[in-house]
Amino acid sequence: MLNRQKKTRLIVTFASVTEAMQMEETCKKANINGRLIPTPKELSGGCGLAWSCAPEEEAPVMALLNSNEIHFTQVSLLELF
Amino acid sequence: MKQISALGDVCPLPVVKAKKALLEMNKGDMLVILVDNEIAVENLKRLASSQKSGFDVVKQSEKVFRVAITRGEPLKEQAENFAQASVPTNGTVVVIASNKMGEGDDKLGAILMKSFVFALTQFEELPCAILLYNSGVFLSTGDSEYLEDLKKMEACGTEVLTCGMCLSFYGLEKELAVGGVTNMYSIVEKMATARKVIRP
User: Which residues neighbour B157 within 8 Å (Cβ) at sequence distance 6 or greater?
Assistant: First the structure.
């Protein structure tokens, strides 16, 4: 396989789909690059969706999460394709 | 230069013959293959582009197309994929027949489909082909949010093929942003020769 390497991603999990969708919307508005993905098997979380972004986005993402605007469950680093 | 005839051969024989001949050739060598239908020409064109080889076609008469493929430099991995690809049976083919997954709420359906395509990219063994038709064409066109995932799989050897009739139905002929165009014969062939067909 060509170009197939896992990369480190910052993963945020949430308690519900609504919160995950709220995260996507807020990040779009704040110009934070990232995307919703189905919560990776390695992480537990009540919800099926997680926010995935480059580790470089950690500062803005953490600032956003700490502003208590969005309720999240967990922030982790994972290796994904 | 090497010339082979695939006149009268049914799909996918022309491609199988061309692949076999190309494998035995060196960079810069030219393969001329005669075929009698445009589908075969299109399939050979895709083969050439997947192998970074030059492609040229001359319509010599109503039923004779002269296709010339100039061998590009195969990467090691490409050569391996290439050898595997000459096995007539495909592995897994994924069929995306809609821009939503399941029936019910449309917004949820779109999120589920996005999750499905992402999960495909995480699978150890990628599908050999992804076929997109009907509203599935919205995934491979314009500035679709699926392009990143589809391109990633395409770069690893997955064929991403969108139904041409569907593109024209939705007025998206000029909007294709990943992979190639296919037709119903080729869709049927891919499904029929697949080891497994997955349709979310």
Answer: A1, A2, B81, B126, B128
Distance of CA B172 to the CA centre of its chain: 18
State the Cα–Cα distance between residues B57 and B60, nearest whole angstrom. Answer: 9
Query: How far is the alpha carbon of B148 from chain A, nearest alpha carbon, in Å?
Result: 11
β-pairing verdict for B64-70 and B90-96: unpaired
Question: B24: which 2 tokens?
Answer: 């035995």
How do residues A4-23 score in pLDDT, each as one tens digit? 889 999 999 998 888 999 99
Write out pLDDT tens, residues B1-49. 899 999 988 766 788 788 888 888 888 899 999 999 877 888 788 888 8
CA distance A32 to A15: 21
CA gap B127, B161 in Å, rounded: 12
Nearest chain A residue to B116 by CA distance is: A38
